[in-house]
Amino acid sequence: MKKRGLLTVISGFAGVGKGTIVRRLVEDYDNYALSVSMTTRAPRPGEEDGVHYFFITKEEFEKNIEEDKMLEYACYVDNYYGTPKAYVEEMLSQGKNVILEIEIQGAMKIKEKVPDALLLFVMPPSAEELKRRLVGRGTETMDVIERRMARAAEESEGIENYEYILINDNVDECVREANEIITNAVYAASRNEDYIENIRKQLKEMAKGE
Comparing C-alpha atoms, which of 56, 6, 12, 51 is closest to residue 32? Predict the structure, then answer.
């Protein structure tokens, strides 16, 4: 029987390198699928529907909310963003470990709806290194960087709700560790209760027959 995939949430501070880790997991291993989010914002140049996002109207998104078709969603700057259930379920049923790269608020919503989801939080080696990476990107002003650092301080209050932390000091090592954690978590007893119950039932039936 084909083993069902594991829904994995990866979060982290802006600039910590979580996007790179997610991309490398999908590229380096064949048993991962990146969840495609749904949004009501307009596509940006180069973005493809069904690849970068599922682009739909606000009315369609709100209908999905009403029909409980979203694992999680949030509204940012007048646009909805969220994770559609159907796509995730399709990938999991194919045995793929589905990765969601979302922030803490969304991660907690996922854990409520999918209790056996695995939550990983990517950490920097230090706060100083996090700021250095943000500055090194060269894409934001110092004012924006300071706001991101302040946001990271707020987000740090929720890290203990995650099962594991990954310290991204060396990206190759971090990707390897992430894969090991996810691979091992698939075999956790708490995530295989149906299988355990099935074996238990078989054993009891065999014991009766002796």
Answer: 6
